[in-house]
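User: Modeling request: complex.
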Amino acid sequence: MREEEIFDKVKGILLSKVAVAPDAVTPEARLKEDLEVDSLDMVEMAMALEDEFSIKVPDDAIAVIQTVADVVEFVRDSLSVMD
Amino acid sequence: MTRRVAVTGVGPLASLGTGRQGFWEALLEGRSGIGEITSFDASAYPCRIAGEVRDFEPTDYMERREAQRMDRFCRFAVAAARLAWEDAGLGPAPDAAACGVEPGRAAVVVGSGIGGISTFEEQYRVLLERGASRVSPHVVPMLIPNMAAGWIAILWGFRGPNLSTVTACAAGTHALGIAYRLIAGGQADLCIAGGAEASITPLALAGFCSMRALSLNNRDPAGASRPFDSRRDGFVMAEGAGLLVLEAAELAESRGARVYAELAGFGMSADAYHVTAPDPEAEGAASCMREALRDAGLRPEDVDYINAHGTSTPLNDRAETAAIRKVFDGHAGRLAVSSTKSMTGHLLGAAGGIEAIASALALYHGTAPPTINLEEPDPQCDLDYVPQRARPLDMRAALSNSFGFGGHNACLALKAWGKP
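Assistant: Request completed. Predicted assembly structure:
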C-alpha cells in the first residue's frame, strides 16, 4: 500500500473517530498537542487502525507514537512485516 | 447561613418545545408533544408512542468532537444548560467569568434516572458481536449518569460543588433541591441544575412495557397521557432535559437579572413500601410536601398551585390526590393542581427539571398550565386539575412534586418573586 493511501486512511480515521478539523491533519501534526487527541482517543484510533489495516497495534506502540507521520510509518512497517 | 435563591434562567428541551418561549407557548396552548416512535423500529412493541425530541442538532450547542464523546442524555443536558445560561442573560457562550462568580463557587447538579442507556445498548452489541477488544474506550464515561454534570463543569469552567442525583423520576427535583441547599447554605453562589434523560431505547422501552407501566393508546398519541382522567392507562415516555440557572438573590439583584421565582423550600422522603408502586396511603408523598412547606416557611393556605407528578398511571394519580388532600385538608379544593406531563409525557429523570421550569414560569406569568386530555375525571381524583385550558391565576407560591421508582419522593416550593 502506498504511503499516500495510508495517510488518507489514517486521516479518515482521525476525522471520523476523533472529529479533528480536516485541515489540521498534516504529517507533522502532533496528535496530543496539535490535534488534542487524548488517551481514550488513542485507544479508539488504535482499534480503528487494527480494523482498517488488519494489523495489531499494541499499547507500547501507541505509547511512542507522536505525530500523524509516526502513525503512517507504524502502519507501513506493520504491513511490510506481513508481506 | 440561609440565603434566598432566585431562578434566573430556564432551559427546557423537550418534544413539546425547546427554549423558554416555545415551551411556555406550547404549555399555554395545551399542545401535546407525543407521537409515534421514530428513532428505532418499535412496531413489535405493545407501546409505540413517546415524546421524542426531533431535529435535535448537537452541533448547534457544542463542538462535534465534544458531542461525539457524549451520550444523547448528556448532549441534551449541555444544550439545555446553554439555553438556560443565555436565558439568564449571561451570554451565548459557556463561561464562568460571565456571571461574575468565582469558579470555585459555581456549582452544577444534574440528575438522570438512567443515564447513557443508548450507549450501553450499542456497546453491549459490540461486545457480543465483535468481542471485548472492540468496546469503545469512551463507553464508561458516556454511560455514567453523573457525566452531564461533569461535562457542564468542563465546558463552563465551574470548579465548585459538582454532582448528580440518581433517584429515577425524582432525579431532576432532587438535583434542584440539592442545588438550592448549596446556594442557601453558602457553599455556592450560582448553580446550573436540573435533569436530563434519553431513554427511549429498545431495551428501556421493552422494560417499561414489561412492567405494564406505559399507555398503550397508540391510536391517539396526543390523547395518551391523560393524568387524573378515568380512561388513563399508563404513562408516556419522553426525553429531553430541563436545566435552570439558580443564584443567590443578592447576586441576581446586583446584576439586575430577571427573576422568575424564588426557590424557597425542598422536601424529601421515602415511601419505604415497594420498588415501583406508590404507597396508597401516600404518607411519603404527603410528608415530603409538608417538609417543603416547612422549609419555605409557607402555610398550606399560602399555596395556590401544584405542578403534580401526575404520571397518568392508575396508581400514581390516586395516591398523589390522596397525599394532597392529607397535606392541604380544607384548602385542597381551592388549589389549582395540574400535570404538565399530559402535554410533555414523562421525562423520567428530566421531569423534575422541566416541571420546575413550568412552575417558575407559571408564577412569573400568573397562569396555571392545564392538564390536557382530562375529560372524565376519575371519581377518586377530585381536585381542580385545571382541565384542558390554561388559567390566569394570581399565585403566591407553588409546589412541584416528583416521585421515583424506589419510593423516592421530592418536592420543591417556589414563591412568586417580589410578593410579600
